[in-house]
Amino acid sequence: MKAVRKFIILFLSTITVLVSSNEVMAQFYDGLQVEYGKNRVQYREFFWQSHTVGHFEIYFYQGGHELAGAIAGIVDPIAKELKPFFGNSLDGPIQIIVYNNIAEFRQSNIGVFSEDEESENIGGTAKIIGNKIFLYGRGDRAALERDLRGGLARIALHQTIYKGDWQDALKNYSMLQIPDWFSEGLIEYLAEEKSSRSKINIFDAARSGALNNIDRSEGDEAGKLGNAVWDYIADVYGIPAIANVLYMVRISRSVEGGFRFATGLNLSSLMSEVISYQTSQTPINYSSKLPRIETRKEKKHSKRDGGDLPFLLKKRYNYVSIKLSPDGKTFAFITDERGQMRVWTCEINDKEMTSGENQFTITKRAQHGNKLDQIISDIPPPIAWHPDGKKFTYSTSEKGSPILVTVILDEKKIIKKDLFRIDEVLSMDYSPDGKSIVFSGMQNGISDLYLYRVIGNLQEPLWRDRFDDLNPRFTENGLSIIFSSNRSDEVLRGDRENIPFNKQLDIYLCHLDEKTPYLEQLVKTPRIDERFPIPLPNREFVYLSEYENGNQETSWGWADSTILSIDTIIRYRHFFDTRVISELDIPISSLDCDTLSGVCYGNSTVMRHSYRVDIGKMPRTKDRTSGVFSVSTQNINLNTGFIPPDWTEKFESTDADIRNYKFEFESRIEKAQFSNKNNSEDTVLTSNNESADTLVASIRLKPVHYRLNFSLQKLQSQVNNTFGSQFYRAYDGTTSFNPGLGNATEIRISDLFDDYHIIGGFNIPANLSNTLVGLAYYDLSGRVDKMISFQRQGKTGIDPLSYNILETQSHFAQYRLTFPVDEVRSLRASMGLRLDRAVTQGTEMFSLTTPNSWTNQIGFKLAWVKDNSRSPALNIMEGTRAKVWAEYYLDGFDKSFGTIGFDLRHYVKIYANAIIAVRAAGNWSIGELALLNLLGGTDNSLSLGNNYGTPIDTKQSYAYQANITPMRGFANNARNGSNAAICNVELRIPLWSTLFSEPSKTDFIRNLQMVGFADVGSAWTGLNPYSDDNTFNSTVYENNPITVTINNNKEPIIYDFGFGFRSRMFGYWVNANWGWGVDDNIILPSRFSLSLNFDF
């Protein structure tokens, strides 16, 4: 007994510590349902305009007209290209909402209400199919076009599966469950059919065996794996098969049925064929240059193998940027974990280590952001080392603005510098003397080159125009910058000139040795994309080329000359020559060179994580004429889809006759044209930069101001057995545990940008007595969110003294301000006015003449909320949700009512999607009036068995009542009092996804979870459950003129344990529990409960 009491006192002490901690943050008006929620933080105002192109409405705000014009020029052709994949055209109108950069896109309120709906809605939500596409500037037109294609493909998919008209789209999720790999994979495939990006993911998916567990994938990973499936369908069955699959999925209401009817294969056979096909498409030398992953041990090791990095990778991190110092002694790298960025260094120890000591030291240098499920930019944060190797600089964003952060290794400190008139830094490089930094900076979605003076913190653009300028690097002397650009020529123009730009990038050189920078084009290939130029000594450089089919090669360029004429002086023609170094068997996402070791390397993917791969030695000047590269240039197989480049060089104007002089690049073009002609290919190779299919033009906009309008966003109707109000139920001597089964309906309309919402709802039980009606208006457009709401709730009960029927009508009006500290934390303040009207129903003369009574209250509430949770599956959470609150109301001028409480929930993943969920909560009454806490039972219960036998202290001035749940081994009102505390622990195991890799055919089996649980809690009226003045510890018997008081030592704290099952049935999330309660150290008989609620 002493041990039990010691544990209970320790538990309550822990609760008290949690309440006083500012790290804990959740109010339960009705059971465990507590309002949490993440935030969107607006650091600027958005004034929207729109421009219409056909049935596309393009919305943009200040600074975004150039980006919107570029989208207007390509949206209609892309929509026509997608038509064969779906068998029909897109139905309009389609709204394209354009943000200038990803930081401002994250400030938007798009989807702010839908993030937590799945975890709060026990039934289905009607799917309102919208026609919205959200884009943001990336500084790279190719990436912008990829995003636009993906957005149009998503709308086309929804219109095909759910139909476009919203009346037809009101379909419950339980009727058609589309897995992520199906939808996200198709969108990924259509966004970029053949590219090095897609090849990296497909090759790794086939080689690693990830396709065997495709049903467990979600989000971005599901898109990468599903891409391999749709690539197989298109290659083997043809593009029309994609439209056939989608049509049959809609008709059969089954993904497997769609594939079976269209391909003749079930999902299991289809996945086997996909793996076999994609494995056969992998280059022969691909696996030989990467670590072996044939055995289980090799796969386990490969998940942490980063290539030639000296340390093992951590599985939970995504290694997005890695850079080696100039002296080759330190790696600087950046990891991402659900949007939280960490900066590290790995110092290689040059002294001799003893056995067991690490050859390196890893140090965490900085951390930015919070862990959130949000769109992560696929542009890696740039890192640039200072030439002395003692410090490095990287760029990130804080409060919506970019900053430069310099890490000084020896001093172990960081220096932050703000950047102005720029939205994001895409890449950067230090000058050889370390006094300047050149970076590709994006403003309003367009990238240009900027020169940053380290001393003085001065920043200036080298120019501003419409073209993309990426991957800048200083040359050896620091007097010029080599970079990639999609500009059509060497002329620097003003940003107002609306001229066409290339689809692919070429290599340029910017000269800084004069007052005004001027450009020189080094490589000009209309149909080949050149990126990541790296300068070498002797005016040489290497770069990465990518063809239209995704094949890549590394190339080498250098300055050269030839004699034009010989007179009194010798005249030379200067140009840049190029050679192919190697064709890459392993597709890479970036190229870099270690000048110290003379090795080129790139980043690829192994077991779905970044892998740094060696791709060969850097070229040397003496190899130009040695014939080393003759094999490389002649081994290009033109029959496999390669389009050989047109090496057109820059040269000075001259009158010399060079028509009879044939350079190597001309021979190469003739050979390519001859080969293409013999193979009857339709591709035409041209060196003319004005070719229509290689240039894209923007459209000049004719914008109009956006007018606020609302549309239906959500319609939800479901069976319910909760009160659902956001205020306490009045206590008039009768306890009300559940209102009775009824219909709960919610309707929400919102504007185009989700800044303004109007929500209306009602809950009408079958007995028509405990009705609830509510209306709320949200304004989320500013830094502080505003909400105005009104609710009315009726409650009917029996007066325990007069036994008359008593009807109480409660009205509650509230005005709330929410100040988001960041995306996961917020401070909420609200003022409320409450009016209760109690009406005694007339059943005889006395009750008929009983006057109505009125009570009113006015007060305020403060709450601190933290929510960084995520839901990878139904009823499966990760992260923390917490809330601390205090409220105080005045009842007239003589009485007051208030509470102080908290609710903390933490979810820990243990294996696959299996988790352990822990909850601790408490509620304390303050003021003359108290809150009656009724402990026991479950939320939204479908089971009978309320406990009316537990006495309620009539000496307490209870004004309101609330349920404290769950205590699954007990009925409602197992304990009651003005104070309460509870702790719940659950082990949740999704059975099917944990035991099997193949997807289940039925929604019920797919979502079936087994749960083991334990609950402990108490409700009391004294200082603590063991206080002598606690009325629970005494029983009073009155028989005039004798009153007998019996003091008992009954254990005030109760606990239970048990197991249960959860799943979705007929569109509702159903909980079935078997619990054994322990009261006063006596194990009670098992109790079965059935309820409709998520979480605990």
Quick structural summary:
The protein is α+β, with helices and mostly antiparallel strands and 1096 residues long. The longest helix has 22 residues, at 65-86.
Structural notes for this entry:
The chain is of the alpha+beta class and 1096 residues long. Among the domains are: 1-27 and 861-1096, Porin, CATH 2.40.160; 46-148, 2-Layer Sandwich (Zincin-like), CATH 3.30.2010; 176-282, no CATH class; 525-673, no CATH class; 712-845. It contains 17 helices and 54 strands. The chain has an 18-stranded antiparallel β-sheet that branches. The protein has a 5-stranded mixed β-sheet with strand order 4-3-2-1-30. A hairpin with a 4-residue loop joins strand 26 (591-594) and strand 27 (599-606). The chain starts with a helix and ends in a 5-residue tail after the last strand. Mean pLDDT is 80; it is low at 1-26, 123-127, 169-174 and 626-693.
Helix/strand layout:
Layout: H1 2-20, E1 49-53, E2 56-60, H2 65-86, E3 94-99, H3 102-105, H4 117-120, E4 132-136, H5 141-162, H6 180-191, H7 196-208, H8 219-237, H9 239-252, H10 255-263, H11 267-281, H12 296-302, E5 318-324, E6 330-337, E7 340-348, E8 360-368, E9 383-385, E10 391-398, E11 401-408, E12 413-418, E13 424-430, E14 436-443, E15 446-453, E16 458-461, E17 469-474, E18 480-485, E19 501-502, E20 506-511, E21 518-523, E22 529-536, E23 540-546, E24 552-566, E25 570-583, E26 591-594, E27 599-606, E28 609-617, H13 630-634, H14 664-678, E29 695-696, E30 704-705, E31 710-720, E32 729-730, E33 742-751, E34 756-765, E35 772-779, E36 785-798, E37 805-820, E38 825-840, H15 845-849, E39 853-867, E40 870-873, E41 876-891, E42 895-911, E43 914-926, E44 930-935, E45 958-964, E46 975-977, E47 979-990, H16 991-995, H17 1003-1006, E48 1009-1020, E49 1034-1039, E50 1042-1047, E51 1054-1065, E52 1068-1079, E53 1082-1083, E54 1087-1091
Parallel strand pairs: 2-3, 3-4, 44-45
Antiparallel strand pairs: 1-2, 1-30, 5-6, 6-7, 7-8, 9-10, 10-11, 11-12, 13-14, 14-15, 15-16, 17-18, 18-20, 19-29, 20-21, 22-23, 23-24, 24-25, 26-27, 27-28, 31-33, 32-45, 33-34, 34-35, 35-36, 36-37, 37-38, 38-39, 39-41, 40-41, 41-42, 42-43, 43-47, 44-46, 47-48, 48-51, 49-50, 51-52, 52-53, 52-54
